[in-house]
Design a protein that fits this description.
Blueprint lengths: L13 H18 L15 H12 L3 H10 L1
């Protein structure tokens, strides 16, 4: 099953979420060249787990990460 995430709170259909996350994931990888696909991939329903991993790797708070992702 492909990774699916909705960082933003607005409701989106599955294809919008997948496309949006793929775009954001690419931007994050460009901004932070040391992030891997593993860092940015998770199963549906595991958003908190992925954010926790990114918090550790990037040294940012959860709120800072969400703002960063939303600003991409």
């Amino acid at each position: 099953m492909p990774p699916i995430v909705a960082i933003k709170t607005k409701k989106m259909n599955t294809s919008e979420v997948k496309g949006n996350w793929n775009e954001q994931k690419g931007k994050l990888k460009r901004k932070f060249g040391y992030l891997t696909d593993n860092d940015l991939m998770f199963e549906e329903g595991k958003k908190e787990e992925m954010l926790g991993k990114l918090q550790i790797k990037l040294g940012k708070t959860k709120d800072d990460l969400i703002k960063l992702i939303e600003s991409l």
